Amino acid sequence: MKSKPNTDQFKIKKDPTLFLEGGNFESIDRTNKDQQTPITTQDPHQREMVIESKMHREQKVFRLPLDLINLLKRESYERSVKTGSRVTETELVEQALRNFLKE
């Protein structure tokens, strides 16, 4: 008759409740950062307001012409290189829509 297998390798070394409590703590900490803070660019030619927000977002899908998509990608890349930090296409579209809708 065979002996029972050794299951010591499957025992959890860390308490999983610590992970869950840490996740709750992080989500509570994020609520303080969810406010909009306007940031102006240092370049005097671009005095556009960049809104950094971590608000609730939902996905919206648009079909755009290929030339507009390429221009958006290029502008995103150029601004990322110029500022030294990542500028996403989503940020550019959001900024353009806010300017267009005067929000």
Keywords:
3 helices; two-stranded antiparallel ribbon; elongated; 103 residues; mainly alpha
Describe the structure.
Helices cover 46% and strands 8% of the residues. It is mainly alpha-helical and 103 residues long. The protein has one domain. It has a two-stranded antiparallel ribbon. β1 and β2 form a beta hairpin. Mean pLDDT is 76; it is low at 29-39 and 44-51.
Biggest sheet statistics: 2 strands, antiparallel
> Structural class, judged by helices and strands?
mainly alpha
C-alpha termini separation: 77 Å
CA gyration radius, whole angstroms: 23 Å
Low-confidence stretches: 29-39, 44-51
- The overall pLDDT average reads 76
- Number of DSSP helical runs: 3
Tell me the strand percentage band: 5-15%
SSE order, one letter for each helix or strand = HEEHH
| Count of strand segments | 2
Give the count of structural domains. 1
Helix amount: 40-55%
Placed side by side, the strands forming the largest sheet appear as: 1-2
Shape: elongated
Q: How are the elements arranged and paired?
A:
Layout: H1 16-31, E1 37-40, E2 49-52, H2 66-83, H3 89-101
Antiparallel strand pairs: 1-2
In brief:
This protein has 103 residues and is mainly alpha-helical.
